Amino acid sequence: METTLNDKLRDITSSLSYFQPEFVITIGIILILIAGLLAKSKKGPWVQALCLLILAITIFTDLRQWAILGENPQHLFLSMLGLDKGAVFWKLIFGTGTLLAVFMGFRGSEASNRQGEYHALMLSVVLGAHLLAMANNLLMVFISIELISISSYLLTSFGFNKNSTEAGVKYLLFGAAASGIMLFGMSWLYAFTGSLDFFQPQFAQMLMKVDTVPLAIGCFLVLGGILFKISAAPMHIWTPDVYTSAPTPVVAFFSVVPKLAGFALLVKWVIIINLFGLSPLNWSSILAVIAMLTITIGNFSALWQKNVKRMLAYSSIAHSGFLLVAMVAFSELAMHSLLFYAAVYLIMNIAAFIFVNYLERSYGYTNVDHYRGLIKASIPLSIMIIVIMISLAGLPPTGGFTAKLLIFTSLWESYSTKENSWMLYLMIFGLTNTVVSLFYYLRIPYYMIFKAPQDETPKNKNLFSFENFLGFIMVLALLLTFFKPDGLMRIINSVSFAF
Amino acid sequence: MAIEHYFILSAILFCIGMTVIITKKNAIVVLMGVELILNAANINFIAVSQLDNIKLGGQFFALFVIVVAAAEAAVGLAIILKIYKYFSTTNLDEINQLKG
């Protein structure tokens, strides 16, 4: 008994050296809470600056992990967590996404004395996402998902008005029900296997002995919770309300970090429930149906939206569907294109929200209607918005096109090897839906260029702020990922997946 | 007591919780339904945990679930309190400003 205890303690201490990013974030949360109390009466973005510094250190430590990790995954904390290059890539995406969202700042009626809470909650979502990307144990999955969810409920109601609170309560009730259902599914899987380490081969071997119906129910219950986090088809109802009413930087953050964290988990989860390709259920076909539903609901609902943030909410649902296409294809190439799509999605979505936020703050524009004749006010701003919209729609010459091309190529390759006809339907469906999405994405450029301004020409306001410069760089990055995708691709190709 | 009894009890609890979530109009009652679902899962975890005496994974899972449920209830009640301030009701049918 003594030796095993000794071994366990040694394992924990040796794991700590691989735990630096999470360590930095945890200390950062405490520091920010203290700084928030001290800076309450002071003017100036001290807390924001501290938060940016912490995130920069986190990204730096993530990069160091990327450098020192070899091919083999590291098992940390008695194989509660597993660290491989894929997890580190996801963590880098989460860190970057949060860094950009924090740059957008938090302003509003009650903002001055809430800076500490706001940034601490942002960091705790990132901590949850970091843990979720590495989670190898059902307990770890549950805790990190709840860490993300509970902080998100609070962040949603940080608008401190009627709508934002309503969105908060809707998100809370849906989210609590979804995580309860997921937990119940987990308890079934624990009953089937007697083990919580879902990434061990024994777990899958035990699952293979289970009858089809209970296995399907257990897996579906857990899948439901994950689909809620990525806002995919049957569980997407909360998304539009939350995106419309939460503060815009929070929305930019929600559309990237918690959603992609869900995908980081889904990749692992689908590997497990496929049971090395021996599963009695064909998960490729099931996910194909979910992806079709998600893309269709997202695109067709977005057509009728007047509010820009609500439109972008439905667009992010549709993008979840496109990311799910990679899960359907499910090959090495598909996983690489999933990571590529995630990186491009991060850039274009946050860039879109940066400019939506800018127009909301300095012009008071919230509806597509308000964007009439914007090109007369500022040509550079309009051009940047047009590039982002083209990229979201997936047209050349932007990174959005490259990402969609890669995803559908991998789907076609899987179709030609596996001959699953659902993949073909999904392919046709996805491509026609891309055409549908053009209608609403290009409505914004159409209003900006061809419609006359409503009453008077909008005045040219000061465009030179740090956020807009950041948005400009992201637009350049979108163009760069089209013309030179090989740099990003080379980084992604060094990530290997275990099938 | 055979382990099946625990499973049946937890399945019944889950169904009651689900029914409460779907049919009840009051936000606080819906949160109570969520608690029922979480406790249904807890019963499963503890019942299965008795089968492996060494690991106790399920019992620890149940402890964590209780802690998380408390945090969730705290956040939930805080948000519902805010809702009551703005809408003077916790009836979910009347909280419907956001549409579209």
UniProtKB/TrEMBL annotation, chain A:
Species per Swiss-Prot/TrEMBL record: Fulvivirga marina
Main location class: membrane
Description of how the protein assembles with itself and partners: NDH-1 is composed of 14 different subunits. Subunits NuoA, H, J, K, L, M, N constitute the membrane sector of the complex.
Keyword NAD assigned: yes
Protein name listed in UniProt: NADH-quinone oxidoreductase subunit N
GO cellular-component term (any): plasma membrane
EC nos: 7.1.1.-
Gene: nuoN
Single Gene Ontology MF annotation: NADH dehydrogenase (ubiquinone) activity
Membership in a protein family: Belongs to the complex I subunit 2 family.
Catalysed reaction equations from the record: a quinone + NADH + 5 H(+)(in) = a quinol + NAD(+) + 4 H(+)(out)
UniProtKB/TrEMBL annotation, chain B:
Keyword Cell membrane carried by entry: yes
Taxonomic superkingdom: Bacteria
Compartment(s): Cell membrane; Membrane
GO molecular function (one): quinone binding
Record protein name field: NADH-quinone oxidoreductase subunit K
Source organism of this protein record: Fulvivirga marina
Keyword Lipoprotein: no
Membrane association type: Multi-pass membrane protein
Transmembrane regions: 6-22, 29-48, 60-81
Swiss-Prot/TrEMBL keywords: Cell membrane, Membrane, NAD, Oxidoreductase, Quinone, Translocase, Transmembrane, Transmembrane helix, Transport
A Pfam short name: Oxidored_q2
Entry GO CC: NADH dehydrogenase complex; plasma membrane
Oligomeric and partner information: NDH-1 is composed of 14 different subunits. Subunits NuoA, H, J, K, L, M, N constitute the membrane sector of the complex.
Signal peptide stretch: none
Any GO BP: ATP synthesis coupled electron transport
